[in-house]
Amino acid sequence: MRHRGMRCWSVANLVSNAGTWMQLTVQNLLVLHITGSAAATGLSMSVQAAPALFVSLLGGAAVDRWPRKLTVAVSQALLGAVAFTMALLVALDRIDMTSLLVLAAVTGVIATVDGPACALLGNDLVPMEDVPSAIGVGALVHSAGRLAGTALAGVTVALLGTGAAYAANGLSFLFVASVVPFLRPLRAATERPVAEVRREPEPVRTSAREGLAYFVRRPRLMALAGITAISSVFGRNYGLTLAVLVTGPLAGGAGSFGTVSTVLAVGGILGAVLGARLRSPSVRTVGLLAAAGGLLQVVAGLSPSLAVLLVLVLPMAVVESVSDTAGTAVLQTDPPAHLRGRVLGVWSTIGTVWGLGGPPLLGLLMQTAGARGALVTGGLLIAGSVAAGLLLRRRGGLLPVAAVPAPDGDVPQRVALGTAA
Question: Alpha carbon 167 to chain centroid distance?
Answer without folding.
Answer: 24
